[in-house]
Amino acid sequence: MFFSGFSTFSILFIIIGYILIKGVPYIKPSLFALEYNTQNVSLFPAVVTTLIMTFLSLLIAAPIGIFTGFYLIEYASSSNKLVEVIRITSETLSGIPSIVYGLFGLLFFVTTLGLSFSIAAGCLTLSIMILPLIIRATEEALLAVPNTLREASFGLGAGKLRTIFRVVLPTALPGIFAGIILAIGRIVGETAALIYTAGTVPQIPKNLLSSGRTLAIHMYSLSSEGLYTNEAYATAVILLIVVIGINGLSSLIAKRLKGDLNE
Amino acid sequence: MKSKTFEKLMEIIFLISASFSIIAVFLICFFMFANGVPAIGKIGILDFILGKDWSPSNIPPSFGIFPMIVGSIYVTIGAIIIGVPIGVLTAIFLAKFCTKSLYRFLKPAVNLMAGIPSIIYGFFGLVVLVPVTRKLFGGTGNSILTASILLGIMILPTIIGLSEAAIRSVPKSYYEGAIALGATHEYSVFFAMLPAAKSGILSSIVLGIGRAIGETMAVVMVAGNQARMPNGILKGIRTLTANIVIEMGYAADLHREALIGTGVVLFVFILLINGLFSVLKRKVT
């Protein structure tokens, strides 16, 4: 058992350590050039695409997810049939593998809606994918808000909407925020759902309908082409740093949240 | 009066948002089945699912995905054999044997493991695991074994997280009762608490199976991807997910539809596994 625990964590450290050691020497300023070409496989366009993709997906999924949480917790009674259906569907969504999302995005957004391989198709697909994460986080955060707060607000004569936005939401915000950060992590690391929706063009996208590759796809392309292994290592380092940062941030928030509740 | 209509309006907006996930699931099911099922019908459901020959560019082409179904099942079983014992034991360690200060350090490590993108796991598999298995066992290194090891690592955080929660939710009285009867700490944990946490641990394994079967990029990079029946643990293999991702880029007509059909088969697998998971979860609560 100690051995198992030990091996689990040593695997993690081997993975991180190996990639850092192999990759850090290849992080050079030239990797951040504006243009991608065969002499210099710059990852800067991929960084820009990743940022755009993350921002747009959250722009779509965050309001929908948070509002769904509001509806489930603040409005619907728990015996409501609709609530059960919503719960089951959002659980189903969280279990669907990313390649199925990719296929669906290809069939629906790319082909049927005619968006072609584009940022728009990619982030629509991703926003469906991260929706259950945000719903779950919002639900848990809202449930953790003590009922006395709501009652006090009602008692002071505030309406339901006012209570939600002025009293409940500020209290639940850190929890919701932690969920959104997890969603960012998911977006940054996603590959299979994006290859056939956002495409793999390695340039900074000109508009919503042009194709672009995120960092994760960039790394997949580099390592499957096999010509730029060093650059793939460097991309892996940057991806890892982003992911570690995101995780640290979300556990920091979670810790503060717990501290607040204990007080 | 005005604020009342506004309240009503916002409630309707919330309701509409809430129905998005229903619409999404419906759309996904509709588009997958509407595009995949006709192709399966055209090829013939038995020829498609049980056919052992996948050669889409032959004349006439043949679209049998049985090797891929077997491939997916093999690597999933391999991942379970490797990931479950390590994962469950690590969960027991985290829940019952490790000190608080160590736990504060190890728990975020498990979360981090869950957050590492699959492409990084795949890359690690490609540059480390593949050469190592090639050296130790011969062959090309791109094999069922390599894919199983990598997937076993990748499902660890899922199994650890849920199993630990299951062990922690066992009432303290079980443990205290066993101690009072003269059992040691280890004996109480393994023979009093573990059986009580059984269904929680089982559901973590089911979720791990779902993860392993649906994993794409990491498997593509280490499994070799030969679309034929595997005849040995050191031979390469192609999974359902890999089949889609590798050929979708250039497929056309019936070939393309057959790939979507592959997606449908995968989707049905996942729906079954998720159904099993929620049945188990309901049993726990």
Count of extended strands of chain A: 0
| Number of helical stretches of at least 4 residues of chain B | 12
Oligomer: heterodimer
Rg for CA atoms of chain A: 21 Å
Assess the beta-strand content of chain B as a share of residues: under 5%
Name the pair of protein chains with the most residues at their interface, and give those residue counts.
A-B, 79 and 77 residues
Number of folding domains of chain B? 2
- Helix-strand topology string of chain B: HHEEHHHHHHHHHH
Write out the CATH superfamily name of chain A: MetI-like
SS-based structural class of chain A?
A: mainly alpha
Q: Would you report the number of β strands of chain B? A: 2
Overall outline of chain B: globular
- Elements of chain A, N to C (H/E): HHHHHHHHHH
Strand content of chain A: under 5%
Annotation field: number of helices of chain A: 10
CATH A-level architecture of chain A: Orthogonal Bundle
Task: Report the CATH topology name of the largest domain in chain B.
Answer: MetI-like fold
Task: Explain the overall architecture.
The complex is a heterodimer of chains A (263) and B (285). Chain A has 263 residues and is mainly α. Chain A has a single domain, classed as Orthogonal Bundle (MetI-like fold). Helix content of chain A is 75%, strand content 0%. Chain A is built from 10 helices and no strands. Chain B has 285 residues and is mainly alpha-helical. Chain B has 12 helices and 2 strands; from the N terminus they run H-H-E-E-H-H-H-H-H-H-H-H-H-H. The model of chain B has no long low-confidence stretch (mean pLDDT 88). Classes of the chains: A mainly alpha (263), B mainly alpha (285). At the A-B interface, helix 1, helix 2, helix 3, helix 4 and helix 5 of A face helix 1, helix 3, helix 4, helix 5 and helix 6 of B.
